[in-house]
Amino acid sequence: MQILFSAQCNGEPISGLTASNVSVFEGGEQVSESESDWSLDRQSAALETYTLLLIDISKSIIESETLPVAQSVALIFAGTLLEQNQSVAVAVFDGHEDIRTVVDFSSDLAEITVGIEGISDGDQLDESTNLNGAVRQGLDLLDEQVAADVEGALISVGNLVVFTDGLDSAGRVSDSRVRGAVAGTEHQVFVVGLVGDEDVSALEALAPDGFFQASDEDALLAAFADLADRLVEEVNKYYRFSYCSPLRNPRTTLRLEVTWEEKTSSIRFSYPTRDFGAGCQLP
Question: What pTM did the predictor assign?
Answer without folding.
Answer: 0.81
